[in-house]
Amino acid sequence: MNKTLPPDARPVAIPPDKAGPLRALTLPPRLAWPTFWMWVVSIVGVVGTDVLALRGSLPYGAACVLNVLFMYPLFGVIHDATHRAVSSNARLNDWIGRIGLLLIAPHGTLGMFRWAHMQHHRHTNGDKDPDEWIHGRWWTLPLRWMSFDLGYLLFIPSRGDAIGRRQLRHTFAALAVLLAVVGVLVWLGHGREVLWLWLIPARLTMMLFGFVFFWLPHVKHDVTAEQNLTLATSMRFGGERWLGPLLQFHNYHLLHHLYPSAPPYNHPRIWRLIEPELRQRDLAVQKGLAIRAEVWPGRRSAA
């Protein structure tokens, strides 16, 4: 344990008898099958919806709504791929993530999202957190949530990081290709299809990502991880049976920050395993559908 850190910023102390079971739950599997099947269902759903709409069997408005529903599970796929939690095989992990990203943000690269998201983990709620973009005045929030990729593009040059700049160049190359493809499709008279089958559902899905996975777990937003590791990210208690799958198990978002390589579907088991240790620390808790978190003080000072 790093004794130079303030007590509240230190990692959670885990008893030796729990270290083995915890490690088993937090290591990336050979293949995270629940995540893989979410990926398959999303791809089949989006492609099937688009085919039905293009054949005239489904109104474009209905196709737009269905595509949002099918794209939403891709958060877990793309996000887990950035943490290499989809598969211990790095190449397989990254290709699954890239294909998932292609359906929503083909202008982005997995490397760019990985770099930006790692900065969020290192600087949670701080000035160097790229997810600062999604916080602001209430009337700007939906626009911020649906444009967090733009926030990343603006954030990377400010950091002066060589890896980030390299990923930015790759992203601009992908963006140029996307604009060319969209331009050709519009020129050929398919602008309506691009708008209803991709642009609108993709942006609505990203708004959901920004709200559910970026903003809600950090809505308290007045404590950085460097000040208090377990208070900078929330836990949501109540309705776990249905909120767990709906939130892709990020109702236990603090556990993700503590063990980012763990497949999120393991979060409930991790919580049950180390609940006594976590309750020794300060927790930011949202109950049920509550937006604001309340502070549950730790049972004793962190060791």
Automatic annotation (TrEMBL):
GO biological process annotation, one example: lipid biosynthetic process
GO MF: oxidoreductase activity, acting on paired donors, with oxidation of a pair of donors resulting in the reduction of molecular oxygen to two molecules of water
Ranges of residues in domain Fatty acid desaturase: 58-285
InterPro entries in UniProt: FA_desaturase_dom, Fatty_acid_desaturase
GO CC, alphabetical: membrane
Keywords, alphabetical: Membrane, Transmembrane, Transmembrane helix
Ranges annotated as spanning the membrane: 31-54, 60-78, 99-118, 168-189, 195-216
The keyword Amino-acid biosynthesis is annotated on this UniProt entry: no
Superkingdom of origin: Bacteria
A UniProt-annotated Pfam family: FA_desaturase
This protein's name: Fatty acid desaturase domain-containing protein
Organism: Pseudacidovorax intermedius
